[in-house]
Design brief:
The chain has 153 residues and is of the alpha/beta class. It has one domain (5-151). The chain has 3 helices and 8 strands. The strands form 2 sheets. The chain has a 6-stranded mixed sheet with strand order 5-2-1-6-7-8, with helices on one face. Strands 3-4 form a two-stranded parallel ribbon. β7 (120-125) and β8 form a beta hairpin. α1 (40-51) runs antiparallel to α3 (137-151).
Length: 153
């Protein structure tokens, strides 16, 4: 059985604590389910590498190139790009309804985009029943790649 995860994109907003995103699925632009490799050292690090240089913009400048994977035109554009990045074969990645229903997921990743501000993300562990990470994509890479290296020694 694989380590399952959900990935969500919730626009940053006043009053929503970053460690509580897992409780607000209905606010998300997407609810992407990953059937396997969903643990932080796997999906978390892959997701963070994809997001670490991403910039959120508001509007597209037709006179200037804004490459996919580097820019997203708001939260919904970011959500679509994430799905496109991870969905490369039949199975493994699915889109679920945004209904706040608890499933079999082991981890919930929530990304909080905001124009002109660094992306923030959180990781909820269902096994520990707590948020195990809040920070930038680079901070997630630093934490979980370091943990992975130490586990293998």
């Amino acid at each position: 059985m694989g380590t399952r995860s959900l990935t969500r994109v919730i626009p940053r907003q006043q009053g929503l604590a970053w460690d509580k995103g897992h409780e607000h699925c209905s606010m998300s632009m997407m609810n992407m389910y990953r059937q396997s490799n969903g643990f932080p050292e796997g999906h978390g690090v892959e997701l963070a590498y994809y997001l670490r240089h991403m910039r959120i913009i508001n509007g597209i400048d037709l006179g200037r190139e804004q490459p996919m994977g580097k820019y997203a035109n708001g939260s919904s554009c970011l959500a679509a790009q994430i799905v496109g990045h991870f969905k490369d074969k039949v199975g493994d990645i699915y889109l679920f309804p945004n209904d706040d229903e608890k499933g079999w997921e082991d981890y919930i990743y929530t990304i909080y985009p905001c124009e002109r501000k660094p992306l923030q993300m959180s990781v909820w562990s269902s096994h520990e029943d707590r948020c195990i990470f809040v920070g930038t994509p680079q901070e997630l890479i630093d934490k979980f790649e370091y943990d992975k290296k130490n586990d293998s020694q």
